[in-house]
């Protein structure tokens, strides 16, 4: 989390950095700041609040000329969000200025040492410790900035992407990464630095992504020099051509990124199976799976590691893999898995799911699984992300950039990829008949148009949102494949509207949550025809007799639930195993509309950040 951006070249740095910060604001948005070199000194402005707050005050505070600068949008880890803890941070001499994304875990011991050596600190941040450590090395070792950064980072435990410059050498920015992403855009005699490529897309399509434990000296009018942090050895830069375009990262007429991304799902799902699902030939082709078929087929079990919404997609996949391919599956929160000494062997196949490909806990879980000899397969959205690179093989979702903090299209495209894998394995293992297999392929191909149809219920979902927007609690119930959808619906509502919501397996309701039900409690029940329909109808009756308000997600033409429920939202019929791809959509829309009606910041909900690169 935290977005970092920098520029060095021949243009005014300020507008480039400001626009870049707006694009990166999804990464963190509790404070923001910019430092510019104006030709003789550093001009710095920072504030608690959003990038818009910074923009409002910055031009009154400082002159904004200069062709070198760095900027930061923060998601607080050490120190509360306030003006002082905002980045950039100066070193004690005022010569160096730094921005940082990540956590320096041993900052307290480093700080004590520096205090003993006469350094003082204004903020509570680990970042201010790092910039002074670099300054201290420069003085002690009489070195230039680049070498001092390398020596200092060897004393640091933690994760970082940093950009730092020295006002006495205003022709270079030094950057480094360990565990947090950092891209360098290569223009004509100009360079851009950012947490992802979005800030510099309109200037260049050429980028170098730093690898972990690498640093780079980015010099005006010169090339980028990359070195290993550990031993200072040189690394040959690897330049990539970016496939992203500007349209993909803009709102395109929608009020919010979240709504745009909900509406993009038919296209995103189609893009995800395009070229892989060949219904006419009755084949599924995914090179990551084909190339490693033996690993998949010989695996004793699949362990899925993920966090948040990606974990919910993992839970859906448990049903799919077990049901279709008869492979035992365990779905683990990456944050728990990494610390509980799990039993993993070479016969395990681990699937790591992550939209961003940068989630620290998922990355750590992957490393642990690999160290025990397991084969790790990644399902990521962001191409070239840390998780995509750390895994042994993988399959991308082709959702396109997801910018709204609440994950939507990532979820449905993850389920799409996992379904394709399960079907391919089921075919290879002979656990599915050829007619059933074909039926699945045909139905999967129809999903984008079915999602399109569900989106047509948007206005109706909005009327339901208006009825329930002021309640304090929501319950979401589902069974089988739709139990994880209930969890996901509840998560969406919590994170963007701040209404307390719980997801439960419908039959578990009577073991506790039923006590919550009264006439004020809305309960969203996923009750599609395939699956455990009759059982869910019984659950609905139990709710009804306790006066709960029922919002049913039902199959088109359903009568039984319609008679019992207060509202029903219809979704087209599909196979039970594919139903999460359609039942999820109304739940996303419901939470979106409630949050908008409550005036919440839908794309940037409080306390959250899009990619959680810290523990
Ligand atoms: C919820 C949400 C988070 C993420 C979680 C994992 O809407 O966005 O729960 O799903 O932080 O992120 P990734 O998938 O990037 O690893």
TrEMBL record:
The protein, known as: Glutamine--fructose-6-phosphate aminotransferase [isomerizing]
SUPFAM superfamilies per record: N-terminal nucleophile aminohydrolases (Ntn hydrolases), SIS domain
The keyword Cytoplasm is annotated on this UniProt entry: yes
MF term (GO), any: transaminase activity
Record keywords: Aminotransferase, Cytoplasm, Glutamine amidotransferase, Repeat, Transferase
A UniProt-annotated Pfam family: GATase_6
Ranges where the Glutamine amidotransferase type-2 domain occurs: 2-221
Gene field: glmS
Classification via HAMAP family: GlmS
Residue stretches making up the SIS domain: 292-431, 464-605
Main subcellular location: cytoplasm
Record: active site: 2 (nucleophile), 610 (for fru-6p isomerization activity)
Subcellular location: Cytoplasm
Subunit structure: Homodimer.
Function: Catalyzes the first step in hexosamine metabolism, converting fructose-6P into glucosamine-6P using glutamine as a nitrogen source.
Catalytic activity: D-fructose 6-phosphate + L-glutamine = D-glucosamine 6-phosphate + L-glutamate
EC number: 2.6.1.16
């Amino acid at each position: 989390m935290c977005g970092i951006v920098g520029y060095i070249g021949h243009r005014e740095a300020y507008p480039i950095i400001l626009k870049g910060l707006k694009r990166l604001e999804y990464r963190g948005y509790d404070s923001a700041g910019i430092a510019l070199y104006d030709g003789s000194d550093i001009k710095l402005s920072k504030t608690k609040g959003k990038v818009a707050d910074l923009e409002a005050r910055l031009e009154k505070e400082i002159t904004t000329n200069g062709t070198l600068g760095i900027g930061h949008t923060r998601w607080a880890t050490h120190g509360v969000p306030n003006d002082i803890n905002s980045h950039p941070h100066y070193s004690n001499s005022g010569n160096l200025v730094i921005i940082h994304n990540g956590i320096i875990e041993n900052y307290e011991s480093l700080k004590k040492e520096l205090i003993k050596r006469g350094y003082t600190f204004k903020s509570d941040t680990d970042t201010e410790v790092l910039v002074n450590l670099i300054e201290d090395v420069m003085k002690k070792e009489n070195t230039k900035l680049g070498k001092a950064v390398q020596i200092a980072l060897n004393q640091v435990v933690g994760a970082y992407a940093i950009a730092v410059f020295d006002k006495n050498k205003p022709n270079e920015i030094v950057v480094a990464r360990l565990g947090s992403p950092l891209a360098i855009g290569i223009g004509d005699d100009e360079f851009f630095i950012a947490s992802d490529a979005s800030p510099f897309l309109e200037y260049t399509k050429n980028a170098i992504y730093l690898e972990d434990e690498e640093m780079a000296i980015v010099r005006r009018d010169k090339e980028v020099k990359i070195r290993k942090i550990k031993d200072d050895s040189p690394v040959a830069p690897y330049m990539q051509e970016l496939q992203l375009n500007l349209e993909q990262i803009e709102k395109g007429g929608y009020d919010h990124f979240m709504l745009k991304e909900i509406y993009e799902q038919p296209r995103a799902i189609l893009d995800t199976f395009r070229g892989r699902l060949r219904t006419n030939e009755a084949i599924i082709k995914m090179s990551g799976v084909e190339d490693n078929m033996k690993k998949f087929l010989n695996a004793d079990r699949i362990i899925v590691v993920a966090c948040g919404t990606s974990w919910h997609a993992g839970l859906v996949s448990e049903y799919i893999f077990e049901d279709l391919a008869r492979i035992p599956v365990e779905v683990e929160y990456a944050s728990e898995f990494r610390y509980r000494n799990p039993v993993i062997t070479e016969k395990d196949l681990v699937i790591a799911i992550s939209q961003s490909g940068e989630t620290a806990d998922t990355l750590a879980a992957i490393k642990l699984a690999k160290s025990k000899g397991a084969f790790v397969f990644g399902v990521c959205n962001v191409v070239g992300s840390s998780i995509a690179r750390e895994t042994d093989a993988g399959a991308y979702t082709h959702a396109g950039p997801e910018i709204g903090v609440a994950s939507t299209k990532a979820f449905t495209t993850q389920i799409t990829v996992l379904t394709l894998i399960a079907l391919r394995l089921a075919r290879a293992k002979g656990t599915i008949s050829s007619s059933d297999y074909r039926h699945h392929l045909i139905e999967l191909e129809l999903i984008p148009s079915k999602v399109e149809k569900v989106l047509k219920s948007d206005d109706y979902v909005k009327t339901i949102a208006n009825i329930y927007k002021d309640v304090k609690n929501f319950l979401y119930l589902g069974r089988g494949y739709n139990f994880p959808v209930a969890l996901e619906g509840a998560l969406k509502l919590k994170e963007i509207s701040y209404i307390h919501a719980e997801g439960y397996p419908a039959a578990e309701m009577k073991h506790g949550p039923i006590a919550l039900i009264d006439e004020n409690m809305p309960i969203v029940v996923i009750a599609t025809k395939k699956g455990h329909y009759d059982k869910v109808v019984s659950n609905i009756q139990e709710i009804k007799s306790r006066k709960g308000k029922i919002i049913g997600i039902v199959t088109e033409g359903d009568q039984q639930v319609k008679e019992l429920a207060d509202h029903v939202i219809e979704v087209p019929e599909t196979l039970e195993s594919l139903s999460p791809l359609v039942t999820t959509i109304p739940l996303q829309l419901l939470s979106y509309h409630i949050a908008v009606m409550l005036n919440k910041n839908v794309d940037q909900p409080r306390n959250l950040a899009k990619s959680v690169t810290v523990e």
